[in-house]
Structure formats: structure tokens, C-alpha cells
Amino acid sequence: MTLPHAGAAPVSCRGRRPHEGCREATRRAAGLQNVEFVGADSEALPFSDEAFTAVPCSASFHHYPSPRAALAEIHRVLAAGAASHSTTEPPISLVARVADRVLRLVDRGHVRLYRASELRAMLADAGFDVLAVDLLHGGGYAIVTARRL
Ligand SMILES: C[S@@+](CC[C@H](N)C(=O)[O-])C[C@H]1O[C@@H](n2cnc3c(N)ncnc32)[C@H](O)[C@@H]1O
Fold first, then answer.
1. In CATH terms, is domain 42-148 a member of 3.40.50.150?
2. Using one digit for the tens of pLDDT, what is the confidence trace for 78-110?
3. Nearest partner of 146 among 55, 59, 48, judged by Cα
4. pTM score
5. Which of 4, 30, 33, 149 counts the highest number of beta carbons within 10 A?
6. Is any ligand 1 atom within 6 A of the Cβ of residue 42?
């Protein structure tokens, strides 16, 4: 399986363009020899069309300035019929909605949280078939699985 990570930073490397040394440290700590970390903007992935059989997007979707552009890129680099798994926090509870508002003010990287219905609509518009929206932690966390049509 070829597996890019739409969300730039693996594990402990945060920041849109994590330092090369941080990527190398993460790769070594995980004991991985056959993994390459590529820092890139989710809205301009440096990969050819249909290059991958899966794209995970971990806890990053709500940080993207243009989520629809990122979805278009994920769609472009995925082979037809392949899947994307995104995790995010839908603002279902009042606490989550308040946290979303506060984070927009204090966290420069936080754009906004999306309701499950909004995620479904954006994915459908981008050419995905939404297979599942699994809500965890009382609805505070979502794993969205979609297949590229
Ligand atoms: C909450 S962290 C999640 C990090 C990691 N994916 C994880 O699951 O632990 C959000 C990440 O999204 C990245 N990010 C935000 N906007 C991005 C963009 N337009 N393109 C690529 N990465 C972006 C940030 O640099 C940050 O590393």
C-alpha cells in the first residue's frame, strides 16, 4: 500500500514544514527504514495523479485554510476506488462549539470544526463516496472514511 499523509506532520513533528531533523528522528524512533517524510501544503501535494492507494488525514482537516482545495488534491493523488480516512472533531456538543470559537481566536492554525453533515457534503462535492462517519468519545471525535469515485 502506498500511503501519503495529508496533514504534513507525523507523530511529534508539528508545523506545516517540520524540520528535516525532526522527520528523521521520528522515522528512526519508529524503526522505519522504508518511509519517506515529505513536508508539503495539503492544497498542493507534490505527487502525481492517482499515485496512492490510501490517504490518511489525521487531526488536520480543521486546520486547512481551503478544505475544498485539500480534498481536491487528495482526490487527485488517490487511485480510483481507493480510500481516504480523515479524523477530526465535529462540534456536536456545546463545549465543542465554544472550544471551536475560542480556538479560532487563540490558535492561529485552527480554522474551524465541521459538522458531520458539512464533511459529507464537501466530500461528495469533491467526488468521494462517503462510506462511514464513525463518531467516538460521545460525538467529540469523528473518523470519516470515503472512497474516491
Ligand atoms: C493537530 S496537528 C496534527 C498533526 C498530526 N497529523 C497528528 O495526527 O498528530 C495539525 C497539523 O496540520 C498541519 N497543517 C495545517 N494546515 C496545513 C496545510 N494547509 N497543509 C498541510 N498541513 C497542514 C499543521 O502543520 C499541523 O502539523
1. yes
2. 999 988 888 888 887 788 889 899 999 999 999
3. 55
4. 0.83
5. 4
6. yes
